[in-house]
Model the fold of this input.
Amino acid sequence: MTPCAGTSPTVAVDNALPATPACQCSVADIRARLQAPTDGLSSAEAATRLQQQGSNSLPQARGRSLWRRLWAQISNLLILVLLSAVVITALLGHTLDSLVILAVVISQALIGLVQEGRAEQALSAIRHMLAPTASVIRDGHSQRIAAAELVAGDTVLLEPGDRVPADIRLERCHSLSLDEAILTGESLAVEKQPEALTSTNALGDQSNMAFSGTLVVRGTGRGVVVATGSRSEIGRISGLLQQTTGLQTPLLAQMDRFARLMATLVVVSGLLILLLGYWLSDLPFADLFIAVVGLTVAGIPEGLPAILSITLAVGVRSMARRQAVVRRMPAIETIGAVSVICSDKTGTLTRNEMMVSALACGAHYRQVRGDGYALDGGLNEPLAETLQTPLMLAAALCNDASLQADNGTVKIHGDPMEAALQVLVHRLDGDPVRLAQHWPRTDEIPFDAEYRLMATLNHDHQGRHQLWVKGAPEAVLQRCRSQLDETEGSVTLAQDYWSDMIERLASDGQRVLALACKEHSGSELEMTDLNDLQLIGLVGLMDPPRSEAIAAVAECHAAGIEVKMITGDHGLTASAIAARLGLHNSAEVLTGKQLDELDDQALQDCVGRVNVYARTSPEHKLRLVQALQSCGDGRNGDGLSGKRQGGAVVAMTGDGVNDAPALKAADVGIAMGHKGSQAAREASAVVLLDDNFASLVAAVKEGRTVYQNLKKGIAFMLPINGGESISLMVALLWGHTLPISALQILWVNMISSVILAMTLAFEPALPGMMQQPPRARNEALLSRPLAWKVLQVSLLFLVGIFAAWHWGMAHSGSEAFASTVAVNALVAMELFYLFTVRYPPGQAISWQGFKGTPVIWVAIAALILMQSLFNWLPLFQRTFNSMAPDLPALMVATGCGVAVLLILQLEGWIRGRWCNNHGD
Ligand code: ATP
Done:
């Protein structure tokens, strides 16, 4: 089928049928044409159609060509400097130098290319993990499948926060509004209705169609898929939805700028030295030029950008392994600095495996026996039939979940709380499916967190209409006038009794739901019909805290991170669960209503102290994020901390479409992979695949590790360049022979430094890392202590290089031998220095320090192999002008390394004692 552009998807499974715009067809007509039964396609039929129609995905945007990618690698300052060195050295007749530098250029470009490819692979794997899903009816019941598997004829259900997965002809809408800006540019949400249109309007006016890529802002809907993949409207203007996120972060950008600045400085000073040297010294130009090339090569940290992006890529991978998928790269840095985590309760801190454990009906309280979702169980004491039947009807009919018993285990589809109500019906010896068949649904008001209830209108075969309501007890009770009574049928509502009962259930940590009903004459349902209800009773649902969340909360507290619970649940329930989780100050609860009464300043004053927020709506989350970010540190008043500059760094979880503003405003917005809507995922920087708070804390830990490793990478690489370039400058200005040649410096920078630095990306978290407070929001990566360390180690390297060279000269009288000793000394100093970088000052000389990670021993083996080639392979000796070192030379080189280690340890130890004595 080939729909005409700009009109409407047409419906014709078979090309012989005249193609009619879907918006003009009735739903029955569309179902007939697409052979789409109302209870959904069978899985087998869907699989056949998928084969015929192809996947419901947009064609991938073509990546950059190999040449373009190669050019991107070559067109950086370092490579251009090296390329000019290749040309000039060749012109000066230093063919060997020219060839080696050329080899370096090529290998640098290839390494960059491979590494970029790897990073892209990692990111596309992540995109795959976040592939959107869709709710469909297949094989007679609703299920979630990958959106790519949708076919024409599928029946799709839409909920707030969903991205519409294909072009859909709507057949049922309940206050359904879609944001169609992606297609029409119209930013206001558009209301939808199912009636067929008489003419084909512009896309924005096709009120009975939901187009692929648009967003459900409000309400629910159901419809039939009429076009998928590139046949959908968005498919025609494809390319729009290609979301890409590069492996770039503020820190990397900062380091890029820093590296470029250093390169410019080095090149400028090289040129100055060349001019001065030519004018002042009597060195031949060719030698001087080669020396300046050496200086340039020595000063530029060639391997640093690669090491930093590898560290980030390793971090992204380990976070994904711990169920946290990073959608926006900067988050990987920010998450390590988080000082407050605001978390949802249900499903994140608790298991979201609900079970009705108690109920109050009439004036009777009963406990419910049973295990999880197992269907058997019952009440501790029987309940009168006149009470039990309405209770079962409300629980079964005002409910969208379904149960599937499979070999003794029960699988649930839909909301776990509604599934628990269906289980309750079974335990009361009822059958929810039969009840639903006996009382078909005519209309409904879907659950909305704003009014916290859900209502359905059902009629029986005698034509009686009955309205059923379930929801938060405050929301339902205020609409009730009477209550069910086992003998009288109906009596006046006993407000106090129910308030006490709510308190009793909630303070036990149970989620409380009220059930109510009313006879109704019409066949449609409006919010205004929900008054003068008759209360049937209350049910208390247990949703125990996740045991791993209890441990994770304790870990957060130890790491100076405050945890705040923000829930739509009742204050007492929230407080009881918070206490079980070990949240600080769990008894103090701020409700959404109280929050509304506070102005911004008052909220800022109490947001640090209060850790439990109940009966909140998504708008409250936004205010809380802003208050935390602009107040002190957002921690409780138990003296844990002082004020932190720039407010708290806030991680906020969310799942609904209305959570999107808070997720965007938070420093790290975290969406739930399971129960989260597509809108929430798109607004967030990180997606938790298992919705689990413990995974969030694991991600914070990974974030801290990544930051630590980035710092280690910088602390390791910079002094090597510093030591080399200071050595060459000293030699040039002093009129000393260069202790290490340009090619030898390239060897050290490109081989030994990179091999060793690579291991830092895989370093595990330092012991005690999660006992440290979070770093300040604006901490500089190249902090003053780090800059001091770089200078200090550069000077140590300078001394080592010259000492080794002079020893070599005295020992053999050969410059080639002396510079070989100097290179070996430099490599040994790097190796020993690496161990001091891995651990805090003063702790490198420990069994743990020397044991290291497996990857470090692989790197050391590779380093020894490469250095042996440098020392003893004739080809390398000719290329790098090296000479086989003897045993004393190797011992001197190793001695330089050991000396660096000892000096740095001693300094660390003295500094540690000084700080202890001066309370610094
Ligand atoms: P969170 O996940 O943020 O911790 P929550 O899941 O408890 O919070 P909401 O989903 O906003 O918060 O629910 C708020 C209240 O609305 C619940 O405590 C419950 O009383 C009621 N409620 C929740 N889901 C439904 C539903 N499907 N039908 C009727 N009432 C519901």
Notes: The pocket of adenosine-5'-triphosphate is lined by residues 344-346, 415, 417-418, 447, 449, 452-454, 470-472, 511, 513, 567-569 (CB under 6 Å).
